[in-house]
Specification:
Blueprint (H helix, E strand, L loop, with lengths): L6 H17 L2 H8 L7 H9 L18 H13 L6 H12 L8 H9 L5 E4 L16 E5 L2 E12 L6 E11 L2 E10 L5 E7 L5 E13 L3 E3 L3 H38 L1 E2 L2 E2 L4 H30 L2 H30 L9 H14 L4 H15 L6
Parallel strand pairs: 1-4, 2-4
Antiparallel strand pairs: 2-3, 3-7, 4-5, 5-8, 6-7, 9-10
Length: about 375
């Protein structure tokens, strides 16, 4: 893999960095977090105008055809700015599902609305008692009725569920094209019979529990039939994890920078804190952890671009484990080196720590991904049966 960025990739990284520096202040983030949606619809429209919502979508589907490198560069910048908008959930995760080669029904129209900034879809997959989206045992059901479908069930911790315009809901169907299993449906926010219980999450965004009480859906609400749905979901989840790793790396870089500045300017016992050897050793450890996280991220990006499906999944899970562990260490040390100011709402370092706590638990925690990575590694090297 060539690690030299192209001119277009550098322009993307520079424009995203400039936007975050000028528009994504901590005060603005806190104002947005206090709103009902937990994100800014005005900023979402700006993202659409800059082409960011079309970035990972193929050119054949009306997007810009960006790959994992471009997505990582964008998310790294957005992570530095603690951006609340659902770029990962709507653009990366739902975008991958809507643009899947076997997607049908309303998928094309919904993808076009997403690219234009008119739609904010989010995945509704996790249910009660499940640890993460990878292991979710779907109990929600979809039954064929005259003219469409009837959907019943409950989904928990739906990211941006209250502010979404559409929910992409996984449900178990009895029979579609002679197949049974999990399928994916599009549910409009205004559909009758849906109850939404919204709650605030630790990183300032909002989640929701969705109750579908035998709601009626049109026939074209079916986006992915059983069979294709399971494989598409697994691949989309992996791409979302990779994007989240890039955002976490951006948070680590931001904490490194603000901590270094603080140690240079904060005077104690007549000299800057940066002159105390014990504190510089901590900064060195934070730097090493950040660079290890960067290496794991780019190793996973290389696997996505070149490796087979199983190796891609293994590399992405390994990156999630390492980035989560390193991120909590770096942001935690950032708070320690700042002292009391580090835990105040008015200072960004504590918000970055909360973002990393949320990242660790999203789409499978570090323990889950460590086990998944090691299991896939062992399976890859198992000797063939005699």
């Amino acid at each position: 893999m060539n690690f030299d960025l192209s001119d277009e990739q550098r322009m993307l990284a520079e424009s995203a960095t400039r936007y975050v520096r000028e528009q994504c202040t901590l005060e603005r983030k806190r104002d947005i977090a206090r709103g009902d949606d937990g994100y800014s619809r005005e900023r979402w429209a700006e993202f659409a105008g800059m082409g960011w919502l079309a970035l990972p979508v193929s050119e054949e589907s009306g997007g810009l055809g960006g790959g994992p490198v471009e997505v990582a560069l964008l998310m790294e910048a957005l992570g530095r700015g603690l951006v609340n908008e659902p770029v990962v959930d709507s653009v990366v995760l739902c975008g991958a599902l809507l643009s899947h080669e076997q997607a049908q029904g309303r998928a094309g129209a919904l993808l076009g609305a997403l690219i234009g900034g008119d739609a904010v879809p989010t995945l509704a997959h996790l249910e009660a008692g499940e640890r993460n989206e990878y292991e979710a045992a779907v109990a929600t059901t979809a039954r064929r009725v005259e003219g469409g479908w009837q959907l019943s069930g409950v989904k928990h911790v739906v990211r941006h569920g209250h502010g979404a315009t559409h929910w992409l809901v996984t449900a178990r169907v009895e029979r579609v094209s002679n197949e049974t299993g999990i399928a994916l449906f599009a549910v409009d926010r205004t559909t009758a019979g849906v109850r939404v219980a919204s709650h605030r999450l630790i990183d300032g965004t909002r989640g929701a529990d969705l109750h579908f009480d035998a709601i009626s859906l049109p026939a074209d609400a079916l986006l992915l039939a059983p069979g294709p749905a399971a494989l598409a979901l697994a691949e989309a989840l992996d791409r979302a994890v990779l994007a989240l790793c890039a955002a976490a790396l951006g948070s680590m870089e931001a904490v490194m920078a603000m901590t270094a500045d603080y140690l240079k300017t904060r005077v104690q016992y007549g000299q800057p804190l940066a002159r105390f050897q014990a504190l510089t050793h901590r900064m060195a450890e934070m730097f090493v952890e950040t660079e290890q996280a960067r290496a794991a991220l780019w190793r996973a990006i290389a696997a996505v671009e070149a490796a087979e499906l199983q190796e891609r999944a293994r590399a992405i899970s390994a990156a999630k484990w390492l980035v989560a562990r390193a991120g909590l260490l770096v942001t935690g040390q950032g708070i320690q080196l700042h002292g009391g100011i580090g835990v105040t709402e008015e200072y960004a370092v504590g918000h970055h720590y909360k973002a990393l706590v949320a990242f660790d638990k999203r789409l499978g925690d570090a323990d889950f991904h460590l086990l998944r990575s090691s299991t896939l590694f062992n399976a890859h090297f198992e000797p063939a049966a005699a």
